[in-house]
Specification:
Number of strands: 5
Helix content: 40-55%
Low-confidence stretches: none
Distance between the termini: 11 Å
Strand content: 15-25%
Order of helices and strands: EHEHEHEHEH
Radius of gyration: 13 Å
Shape: globular
Strand order of the largest sheet: 2-1-3-4-5
Number of helices: 5
Structural class: alpha/beta
Mean pLDDT: 92
Length: about 130
Amino acid sequence: MKPKILIVDDAIDSWHILRTVLEAHQYHPIWAADSIQALNLARLHHPRALLLDLGLPGGDGFLVLERVKSNRLLAEIPVIIVSARDHEEAQVRALSLGAAAYYQKPIKAETLIPLLSGVLGNAEKREGGER
């Protein structure tokens, strides 16, 4: 079974790029366009990871990150921030809120996939094996 990855991004162009990259590397992408959908789909699908943009309608990505990390059923899901925001300030805040990594757009498969693989590998080590 392909690992589910929840992509949270309101930009359809970003969704298409991320979906194409993930599918090409044997992942099953799920899409949420706003913070409410993101939290509902995370609860429903319990994905292996979240790729989370920061600029979302209905609450920014930092709010989604805080809610995921404070929910005992979702807290172990690694979150990778995928954003075009000012890298340094946003990265510091994201990591302090529990993000596993910060990825600066533009999206490139040759850098995103190794990052995602590493984050998933680290999550498996913490959990004591594969889910």
